[in-house]
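Q: C-alpha cells for this one, please.
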Amino acid sequence: MEELANSLELALVVHDTASLELLERFLIAALGHETEPVRDQAVRLLNVLYDGHSMQRTRALPVKIRTIGNLFLMETTVPDSVDISNVLLRVSAPNPSDLECHHVYVSTYRPWVQGTSRGVCYELPAFPAAGYYDYCFGTVRGGAFVPLPAEEEGTRGRYIVHPDLRREVFHEVFVDLEGATWDHVRGGHIQHRGSFANITKELPTYANAHGITTVYVMGALDRPNFGYGQPLAPIDRSAANRASGGAEAFDELVAAAAAVGVKVMVDATTRLSIQGAHRKYRRLVCHSLDAKGMPHVTLGTDGLEHCWEDSVLLNYRRREAWQLFVDEVEAWAQRGVRGVRIDTAHCTPVVLRANEQELRRLDSDEHMHYSVEELFYGDIVRSFTDEAESFGVFGTRAFRDHAYPNPFFVKLAAHVWRRHPEFMLLAEAYWGREAALIRSALVPYATGLQGSLHAVMGVGVNKDGVLVRQQRASVKCFYDWYELERSQYPQNALLVHGGSHYSPYPLSMFGAGAWSRVDLLFFLPEVPLTYIGELAGLAVDVDVREGVLTPVPGARELPQVRGHYEHRARLRRQYPVLSEGGMILLYARFDGDGWHDRVLSFARFKYNSMAVVAVNLNDVPSVFYVDLKPLRDICDHGCIYKRVDLIDPTTPAVYFSLDELLAERQFVELRPYQSFVWSIAREADTAATRRVLFEHSMQRLMRILDAGTDPHHNLIYSKITAAADRSPEALASAVLELHDQAAPGADLIPSLIQRALHYHALATGGEERVMGALMHAYVHARSLRAQPPGSADASRGAILVAIYERVLQRNIMGPIVFVTPEIGRFSTVGGIGVMVNELTLDLVALGCDVYVISPYYNFNRKGKTGYLANEGMAWERNMVTQMGHESLEVGVHSGEEHGVRYYFIHHFDFFPTPYHAGSPVHQLKSIVLMAKASLELCCQLKLLPAVIVTNDWFTGLVPAYGLRSSAFGSVFSNATFFHIIHNLEKGYEGKIWLDGYDDLGYIHNLARDLIIDPAGHPQLCVNASRCALLSASQWGTVSKSYRHDLMHGMNPSSLRALLLRFPRPFAHLNGIRAAQRRALLHKTAHGHDDAKAMLQTKYFGEANPRVPIFSFVGRISEQKGVHLMLGAFKELYDKFGGRIQMLVGGMANMKDPYAAQCAWNMQALRMQYPNNFWADPNEFFTDGPLVNLGSNFALMPSLFEPSGVVQQEYFVAGTPVIAYRTGGLKDTVFEYNKSSLEGNGLTFEGYHHKDFVQAVSRAVSLFALKPHYLQLRENAEKSVLDTKVVAEAWAKEFARLRKVIWSRDVTSQSILALEEGEATAGSGDGGAKKDA
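A: Here is the predicted structure, written as C-alpha cells:
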C-alpha cells in the first residue's frame, strides 16, 4: 500500500489521468478487502485522490463549514522557532477551469501577538463557489514549501463551502399526493395520483404564501409498475417518472419553479427496483446464493437492520457503480435540478462481504467458475450481517476513529460542485452519523433533534415511521443534543430539521403541541423542512409505498395551522438573524437557581442583532424569565438596547442598558405551546433614546421594588445608590439627570429615590449611613437654593429641595395601631399584655406614632368593674358597628400615657372578661365585634394606619375585614396588616366549634374559605388564626426558635402550610424595660441578700441565707409545667435534708381540672412543709419584684414557651433561671459552664421528672460554690434583653414592610426640620432626639 500511495502522489503531481483512474478502480475495490488495514489505507488514499493533494495522507483535515459569500479568514499560531516573515499559506480550492483542483500560495498576512503567543492572520476574498477549500501553513526551505508541524493546532484544515442553504425553506412534495384523490369508502386507497403538472400549479402558492424556496419532489425518479411502484426503488435513477408526466412535464416544472424563484430537488438513491431496472445497471448488480445454491440478485439493504425486498443492491466495489451514481446526479443538475436528497446516506455505500468460497469454486474441469474480474470485484456476496458497521468504509479506523470523510461522497461533491457550484446535497441520517456526513460535504437531517422533540412531546417514531407513545421527557433533551452531540459536529455545521415521508404528520403526533413544533422549525438554526399536507393541518397516516391514506385515532385536523406556518416562515425570511444567525442556549428560570423543564429558550445572533426565543412545550401555562447572562460576550458595554416583540409587533418596544438586559428578570407567562421572539438590537445613543431608556428603567425599577427582587442591575437604581454613596454633589447630579430625563409632570422620581435608597440601606445594612447621606444631600440642596435668585445653582437647588422634601415625606412610616385583647395594667392576664405594653412604650420612645385598641372588659383581672376611671381613661364617644344584621352601639374610652394613645372599646354582652367562654355564636360575635369595631374606630378617628398589628387569635379577623372584605371598601388597602403569633399550640389557635352545618355567615359576612377551617371536618370550625394568616401581609412571633418549631419542628403547627407561604416571617424575643424594672427593684429591697431575707421572713417564717429559694411566678396551667415542680419537691426535700425552699406564686382557675389538681397539691405541700414550701392558688400574687430579686433560682419548666418574659424579669434582678429547652427559653437560658464561666442558668432536655430533679440538684450544688454562684448571677444580669433593643427590631421590620428607611438617629422629620444646615432633631419614624 505504501508503493500505491507513492504512485498516487506522483500521478497527482503530473496529472496522469489514466493512472489515477486505474488507482481509483483498485482502491474502491480494496474497500471490500477482508483485512481492515487494507480498507483503512483505501479510505485514506481515496480521499487523497479526490482532494488532488496529499494533505490528508496521514491524518484527516479538521473541518469547518461555510456557505458561499462567507468571509475566508484564517489564522494560526507560529512556533518561536519559525521566522514569522517566512510563513506562507497554501490553499487548495475548486478550479473554475474544470481541472481537479488548483493551488494558491498567499504571503500577505497580518501578524498578531497575544500574551506569549504570536501568529499570522490571512484574509482572503469571500468564498465564491461551493467546494473544498483546504489549506496548510508552512515555510519555504530550499525553494520548497514545507508545512508547519501538523501537531500544531490550526496549521492545516478544510473549509467545506455549501450553497447558501441557511436562507432556504424546504418543502417535500410526494408527487403522487399533489392533487391526488382518495377512496375513503374502500380503505383510503388512492384513486387518482398527483403529477408534476399539479406541483407546477401549486408553485406560486408555495413561493408567495408559504415562503418555500426549494421544493423537494419525492418520487420523481422513474419507477416500476408503469410508474406506480415504490418511489425509492427506481428503475432509472436519472429519468423522470413517466406516470407523473415524464421528462416533458418535469422540465416544465423546473422551468416554472425557476420563474417564481423556487429551486427543485429530487431523490438520489443507491438502490434499484428489483423489477424492470434499466439495462445500464445489469452488470453492476450484486448476486447472492439462495439456500439451494442458486444465484439471485442481492436485495437492497442498509447492511445492518433492514432488507428491502422490492429493491436490489449494486456492487459498490466497482468504480463504475460509483461513477454512475455521480453521473446520474449530475444529469439531474444539467436539467436544472438544484439538489438531491440522498436516501440512507448514513450507510452508503453498502459493501457486503464477498462469498469467497463460491467465487473460488472450481468447475469439473478444475478451472475457476468465476473470472478473475468477478473474484476481484466480489460479484457474489454473502447475506448482510453488520457490514454497515464493520466492513467497507465503515469498518475502518480512518472513518470510525480518525474522522476521515466518506470518499464516496467526497467524489460526488467534488465532481458535482465543480460544474454546478450551487448544487445542494441533503442526506438522510441515522445511527448518529450526522457528523461523518457533514465532514463528507453533505447536509444531513437532524435526526437527533427530531428525536429530542419527540421525547419532550412523549412520542416515539421508529425508522419506518411507526408512532409509539411514551412518557414525556424534559427540555433537557434539547440541551443535551445541542451541548453534547451537535457541539461535536464541525464548526457552523448545516443540518435540516423537519418531517419527511417516513414521519407521521405533526398534528397526528403532537396534537396542540404542533404549534410549538412549528416555532422550533423556523426559529432554530437548522434549515426547516415541511412535508406535503403538513401546511394544511392534515392529521392522517399516509403509506407512501402502498398509496393508502388512513385516519389517525384521536387526531384532529387543523386547517388554521396554515397561517401559523406562513407567519413563522415570513419572520424567518424577514429577519436574517433567524435564518443565518448563530445560536446560544439560554435557560428559562422560575427562580435564581431552578430552571423550567418545559420551556426551551435560546438566542440567535448575527453582528449587532439578536433574537431571544422561548417556546413553552407545556400543556399548561408557564411563568418564567429567560436568563440572558450568557449573551454578555456578544454585547457591547455602555450601549442602549431595544427589545421588540416580533410575534406581536403591537407590543411597545422596551429599552435597556446592558446590565438591565442581561440581569433583570423579565418574567413572562406563555400559554400552552405558545412562544415569544424578542428582537434585541443596539440603538444609537441619542437624546431621544436615552430619555426613553430612563423612562423604561424607572418603570422597571418600580416593578422590581414592588416584587422585592434585587434591583442592583437596574440603571436608575445603580445611578441613585452609587451617587448617594459618593457625595451630596454626586447625588445631586444623578437626581437632576433623572429629573431632566423624566416625562413632564411625572411624580415618580421622589418615590423611586426613596424606595431605591430603602432597598440599598437594607441590602448593605447601612440605614444610618443612607439617612446621613440624604441629610447631607438636603443641606447641599438648600445651600444651592440660597444662591442669588435666577442663577443656575439656585434653580438647581430649588428643584433638588422640592424632590428631597418629597423623598423625606415618603420616608415617614405613619401611625402604628396595635389591636390586642389585653394590655398592660389595664387588662393583662398573660404574656401578650406585658409584651404589647412594653413594646408600644419603647416604640414611642423611638419616635413612632403608636395607638392601642383593646377591649374595656366588664371585669378586670382582679374582678373589679369600672377600672378605667381610676386609670386616667375617659369615655370619648359611642359608635355604631354593624355585625351581620345587627347594629351594635359600642362605647369608646380613651387616654394617653407616655405618648401612647389608648382606645378601649366596650360592649357589655361581648367583652365581659378576657377570653370569655360562651356559646359558639357568642364567641364568634365577640371576635367579629373586636375586629370590625377596631377598624370602624380608625375610620371614626380619620386615622389611616400604616401598620395594623394584631395579636393572637382574638384579633385574627381584623386583617380579613381590612383586606379581604368589602365592609370597609378600600380604606385599608394600603395598610400593612401584621399578625403576631404569641402562642399557636393546641388550644391556642382560637378554634370555635360550631353546631350543625351553618357557618354563621350571616354574622361574619366573610368568605367561607377564609374563616372555616377545612381540617375541622365533619364538624364546622372557625379558626381565627388561620383567617389571620390567609389575610395578613406578614406574620411574626416572639422568638426565632418558636418560629422554627412552628414551621419545621418535630411537631409543627397544623397551620404550617400557611406559615410557609410568607417568605420572611419575623421573630424576635420579648424583653423588659430594664431601667424601669431596676428602679422598681431598688425600691423593693437593697439588693439580693436583703430581698431574700425579706422573702424568707414573709413566706417561710425566718431568714436563712444558707437555704436556696426556688421560685415560680405565673399561671397555674399545664403549659407552665407546674406539676413537675410539685411532683419533685418531696424528693428534693429529702435529698437535701430539708435545706431547700420553693415558692409558687400564681392563681389557679378552679374550673380547669389541671389547675384544680395542682391547687390541691400545693395546699397539701404547704401544710406538710410550712417552712419550705409556699403557695396560695386562691389569691393573685403581687410580690413579683421581691421574688425576682430575692430568689436564688427561678423555675420555668414550661412544656412550651414561645418567648417568655418572666425569665427577663428574673435576669434583670441577677437571678439565674432553670428552664426546659423549648421555644424562646432555648434562645435565652443557657447552661452554666464551670470551665468557661459562661451561661445564665440551667436547662434540661427531656421533659421528665428525673431531668427536672437533676437540673435543680445541679443548681443546689452551684449555690454551694459561692464564686461560681456569684458569677452565674452576674451572667444572668448581663443577659437581660431590654425592650429598647426589641422595639428597634420590631420598628425595623415595620419600616421594611412599609419600605421606609429606619434610622434611630437621623429621621425624615429631623432632616425636614433643618434650617440652613443646622440640624434640629425631631421625632418621627425613627430616632431619639439627637443632633443630626
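A few notes: Residues 1315-1332 have pLDDT under 50 and may be disordered. The two ends are 95 Å apart (CA to CA).
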